[in-house]
Amino acid sequence: MYVVEGDKMVREYLRAGMPVKSLICKKEWLNSLEKGLTDGVDEIIPVSFDELRSISTLSAPHNALALVSTGTSVEKEEAPEGTYTIVLETIQDPGNLGTIIRSALWFGVQHIVCSKDSVDCYNPKVVQAAMGGLIGVRVSYRDLQPYLTAAAAEGKEIVATSPGAPSVYEFNPRKREGILLFGNESKGLSKAACNLATVVTGIPGKREDNSTGSLNVAMSVSVVLSEFSRRKLI
Questions:
Q1: Within this chain, do residues 159 and 216 fall inside the same structural domain, yes or no?
Q2: Minimal CA–CA distance to 65: which of 87, 43, 84, 83?
Q3: Where a domain ends, among 48, 68, 88?
Q4: H or E element at residue 179
């Protein structure tokens, strides 16, 4: 199970029919919910604000906390035909993964594949940063080398992102489905992953020599998704 905190997020999970095992909340908040919204909840535990604060991971707790079963859509591994899948290699910061999940939901990407050494998508900080994104985005963990090798053998477009590469704004895809590949926060993509790409593209900026750092990976994903959405590729 994993923890979901915050009035808005808990309400969204209830409305989506997610498998909430325990709902721990203030009685006043519980009474404010629409009729029937908690019918599928296994256990409801009314608590005081002080009791909620004692178990909350937030510095400023809200009125509700939910324990949600992991036996949901995030365990599914395949994206629908005719879509792009986001593939992440060694993403370590929970805030980055949560933001990527949130962006994927916004732009309509239904599946994210992470390397097995990436941060757990059920990490509380990931869940919080995703802002309900796990309701609609599937996240799975794979050995990327065989996964990408199989995708290449199937003829899928594998789009790697790298600083200084030809602009994503000039990218011409061979087909409207495939993989968008992003690398580690500090090291970028491994050479092995890059070698499996069918095309490498980048986001043009004023500091392409990387003398003062690079674009945050979550921001990079959002920029690429925005461009792909604008061109109706996703």
A1: yes
A2: 43
A3: 68
A4: strand 178-182
